[in-house]
Specification:
about 500 residues, alpha+beta, six-stranded mixed sheet, five-stranded mixed barrel, 14 helices, about 35% helix
Length: about 500
């Protein structure tokens, strides 16, 4: 019998072991530490001054950030201004990580190998040393920071009229959190103290929320998918996993998402004249199964992939059966498949992002956490300075391939840790029967996710004839925290 005692599982050591298993280097090499020793000098020399060429001083604006409650690797801040004609100027300041991490230095080489920060639930494995990512290159409150500002004008209908990208010096005036700001924007809770204490900040956040919703409505009109995944996270008290809880989306999370999608589109279009990285989600190969799923709900989708038709179907299902919409969304996400990085050469056309219904999309807004964004930042700065592209096409191709592979590996690390934490949380519920949905059918077996709590596991018995999206009753028959196994049988 497996030993289900969670005290025998060192979660931190397990996370590190899984990182290494999937090819990550969780400890920074000696040459990175040596470079960090010179960081104070390098940071002072490389941070743009107010009088620097083509660097605007925007520290007086009411910038704020919204992120997770515990986040310190702050990549972006936002501010908006309404013009007399009703248009709204949105400015998004992105941390200028390149100012502290020159290309081909040891820190950059390590980031190029890892490509992403991995969030392993009980601990994080940062792509950049925390002296940078949660320190001098993070847009921390009340700190002057160099930034790349992505600016765009939104009209009353939510259309982007114009855009600009430039370097600036900024200062985050209020570091805010998703949960508290989201509840306030939705009218379900009082304003958090920083917001309550500033009428100007209240107006600013409400303006941002208004514009973000207009941007979202425009994307939906063009076929962006309305999806809801109900992600869960472990609740850890005194180093013990006591439960798993659902991550709630709200107006604040949507606000940041909508602004980042718009900003990444602006950058992608800016870089059309040079070779650059694109983030794409290809047209679904398993569209036929999505059509079958719709048919089980009495709906008919076209024979050829159509994101607008799919989203209209999803919206109808969300209205008809909101309690199970997350499970339908999960099935659709699995059938669409993951995103990937590709190179778009000057004048070329990448496939676009099926889920977002946008043709021009890159990753540029999280350089403290993703290497692709650092690369894109260097492309932006070279273009602004009228310099040649700092990356050759074959170099970009290699980076795109590695970023895709490492991102997939990071998802596996996070999933492996989530499975172990879920196994710990569920070990006292063996024998219970749950409503479930099939989330995957592979050579390794059929996988299901129970609806409450949202835990995934192997359907070890009774999987014959099932496919992604099918519903069933599943009985929990075994958990093994050491291996992360959660096994069900068909009830």
């Amino acid at each position: 019998m497996p030993d289900n005692n969670p005290t025998h599982l060192d979660l931190q050591a397990t996370a590190k072991q899984i990182m290494q298993q999937y090819g990550f280097q969780p400890d920074f090499p000696a040459e990175v530490t040596a470079q960090l020793g010179n960081l104070p000098v390098a940071a002072k020399e490389q941070s743009p001054s107010v009088s620097g060429a083509n660097v605007r001083d925007l520290r007086n604006l009411l910038w704020s950030s919204i992120d997770n409650d515990t986040s310190r690797d702050l990549d972006q801040i936002e501010v908006a201004q309404r013009a007399s004609n009703g248009d709204v100027k949105v400015m998004i300041g992105i941390a200028d990580v390149d100012a502290y991490v020159p290309k081909q230095t040891p820190i950059d080489q390590h980031a190029a190998r890892e490509t992403t920060t991995v969030y392993a639930a009980v601990c994080n494995f940062p792509m950049l040393p925390e002296q940078l990512s949660t320190g001098v290159s993070s847009l921390l409150e009340n700190q002057d920071r160099p930034a790349i500002v992505i600016e765009f004008i939104v009209d009353a209908g939510g259309n982007l009229k114009s855009s600009d990208v430039y370097r600036a010096l900024v200062q985050n005036k209020a570091q805010l959190q998703y949960n508290s700001v989201g509840a306030w924007l939705e009218g379900t809770a009082a304003a958090p103290p920083k917001v309550a204490g500033s009428a100007d900040l209240q107006m600013q956040l409400k303006l941002q929320d208004e514009i973000a919703q207009k941007l979202k409505n425009q994307r939906f009109a063009h076929g962006a998918l309305t999806l809801q995944t109900d992600e869960v996270h472990p609740l850890v008290l005194n180093n013990q996993v006591v439960d798993v809880v659902k991550q709630q989306r709200n107006h604040a999370t949507d606000l940041i998402e909508d602004f980042m999608i718009a900003a990444n589109g602006v950058v992608a279009r800016m870089l059309e004249s040079v070779s650059s990285l694109r983030r794409i989600v290809r047209t679904p190969k398993r569209w036929d199964r999505i059509v079958e799923l719709a048919a089980t709900k009495g709906e008919k989708l076209p024979a050829q992939p159509d994101s607008k038709a799919l989203n209209d179907f999803l919206l109808r299902r969300k209205a008809a059966d909101p309690d199970h919409f997350a499970d339908l969304s999960l099935a659709v996400i699995k059938l669409i498949g993951p995103g990937e990085y590709v190179v778009e050469r000057a004048g070329g056309t990448a496939p676009g992002h099926f889920g977002l219904a946008v043709q021009d999309y890159t990753h540029s807004t999280a350089p403290n956490r993703r290497f692709a964004d650092v690369v894109t930042q260097r492309l932006i700065k070279a273009m602004l300075a009228h310099q040649t592209n700092p990356y050759a096409d074959d170099e970009l191709t290699a980076i795109a391939t590695n970023c895709t592979l490492r991102e997939d590996a990071a998802r596996k690390v996070e999933r492996e840790m989530s499975k172990r934490l879920a196994a710990i949380a569920m070990q006292h519920r063996i024998g219970e029967v749950f409503d479930a949905i099939v989330t995957g059918v592979t050579d390794h077996g059929t996988f299901v996710r129970v609806l409450q709590p949202h835990i995934e596991g192997l359907l070890a018995q009774g999987a014959q004839g099932l496919d992604v999206g099918d519903k069933l009753r599943a009985k929990l028959i075994r958990t093994d925290p050491q291996k992360g196994y959660i096994d069900f049988s068909r009830a």
